Amino acid sequence: MKTTILGKTGEKVSILGFGCMRLPLNSADKADIDYPKATAMLHKAIDNGVNYVDTAYNYHSSVPRTPGESEVFVGKALAGGYREKVRLATKLPTWLPKTKQDMHEILDSQLKRLNTGHLDMYLAHNLKGAIWPKMQAMGMLEFFDEAKKDGRIKHAGFSFHDRYAAFEDIVKGHDWDFAQIQYNYMDVNYQAGRKGAELCKERGMGLIVMEPLRGGFLINHLPEEAKAIFSKARPDWTLADWGLRWLWNRPEVDIVLSGMTAMPQLEENMAMAAAPGGFGEKETTATDSVRALLKKRLPVDCTACGYCLPCPSNVNIPGVFSFYNDFHLMDAEEAKDRARFMYKFQIMEAERAGKCTHCKACEEKCPQQIAVSDNMEKAAALFGS
């Protein structure tokens, strides 16, 4: 497993990080983690050199924005000597505290769930331009300093889903240790993007990348025309190769987080992280071509992160957009028919696009700044009631 130094933190980290947001499940309930399968995956990753583990307060929660099962799972899975082998990261839920004291209490509760006395990395979760001044006024930066001083956290950073201008304000507003951004060969100039990644490097910050495959989109939903471009350039590479190797070819990237759901995914990603090279002019040209193709065909830039939920009208926003995008990206009419069928099969009537009331509460929370209401109207017209 190839390693690097995470910016000014000085921490020696694996270039592949284990993201604990999409662990294997026993049922449709996101909190129903399959502990044996998930534990086997995490242990195998660590045994093979992966030493960065990322979770969050709300990952694998049955109810959005409430304490999830991911931290509990990680705390149990890292017992027996595994905790000492990794750099452990979790996140302060920025939507929850009302005072600085609340932040201290939240951190203490997370340490208890994670069964650890300290965190190597602690992030302000989804720190956006609109809430940055509020968190400052609430004393978040002082809280980070206090938690560092008493040893509960070693390094402080933030994760981000917003426009570049907000990213620059946040980065320049504090002496951060590291940042975590969405970045992949499709999102070069989106949100913080390459410009934000390079700003981090200029300031000596570590950079961690999330959504390297856009929540699986760059694996599961590529049109045949895009696959053909990749296959012609490198027939020996998988679609995952293209996504991860593109990032590891970027000098500003330190860690690529992958939310792996099954053992074969883990094994493939570890093999790539052991020999991440091979990205040259031919490969860059291919990814540029695929990016241009996808931008023309993708109607809604949704990554299914779930920050828009719960919807006041109970609309399954990520589910609707998943099938809406599938319909537009598929080439064959048969595939389009399947998207229509799966929409009605998997999206309950009470959760469909036509139930949207255009309240726009979701748009205030959407990291991608999607015009959800307008697109729900289009999806309703396409799929019917």
Report on this model:
The structure is a single chain. By secondary structure, the protein is an alpha/beta fold. The chain has 16 helices and ten strands. An eight-stranded parallel barrel has the order 3-4-5-6-7-8-9-10, surrounded by five helices. A two-stranded antiparallel ribbon has the order 1-2. Helix 1 (35-47) links the parallel strand 3 and strand 4. It is globular and about 60 Å long.
Spell out the blueprint of helices and strands.
Blueprint: E1 3-5, E2 12-14, E3 16-19, H1 35-47, E4 52-54, H2 70-77, E5 87-93, H3 100-114, E6 119-125, H4 132-138, H5 140-149, E7 153-160, H6 164-172, E8 178-182, H7 193-202, E9 206-210, H8 217-220, H9 224-233, H10 239-248, E10 255-258, H11 263-274, H12 281-297, H13 317-329, H14 333-346, H15 361-365, H16 372-383
Helix pairs in contact: 1-11, 2-3, 3-5, 6-7, 9-12, 10-11, 13-14, 13-16
Over the alpha carbons, how many angstroms does the gyration radius reach?
A: 20 Å
Strand tally, please? Answer: 10
The helix count comes to 16
SSE-based structural type: alpha/beta
Shape descriptor: globular
Strand content: 5-15%
**Helicity level, as a percent range?**
40-55%
Residue runs with pLDDT of under 50 for 5 or more positions: none
- Spatially, the strands of the biggest sheet line up as 3-4-5-6-7-8-9-10
N-to-C terminal Cα separation, in Å? 50 Å
SSE pattern:
EEEHEHEHEHHEHEHEHHHEHHHHHH
> How confident overall, as mean pLDDT?
94
> Largest sheet at a glance?
8 strands, parallel, barrel
